[in-house]
Amino acid sequence: PFIRSEQVPDWNSGQSGNLLESSDCVKVRGLPWSANYEVIRNFFKDYEVTNIHIIKDRSGRSSGIAYVEFTNEEQAIGALSLHRHYIGQRYVELFIESRASMNQDINYKGEL
Description:
The chain is α+β, with helices and mostly antiparallel strands. The protein is built from 3 helices and 7 strands. The strands form 2 sheets. It has a 5-stranded antiparallel beta sheet with strand order 1-3-4-2-7. Strand 5 (86-87) and strand 6 form a beta hairpin.
């Protein structure tokens, strides 16, 4: 897949946490095709997001999957409270994802 990442400013001047094998990452599945970085940031507005990766298909369109990195594990776990909440007309599923697994999906050359 084609990846476009956006580095989100560190609002709290802290570094991204890595407590339990990078469990500060959340996989978001079921995004509307039109979801962009602003929409995803707004969805997680009550949490400290450090980075967003939207997975694109070969034609450059959203695959409906994104990875969101938080400042620490507690923020990522807290964000799971939004599991099955709606973005537009679609509910999204949220899963804690290790950084290694996230990087593997981001770097994978085939389709997700």
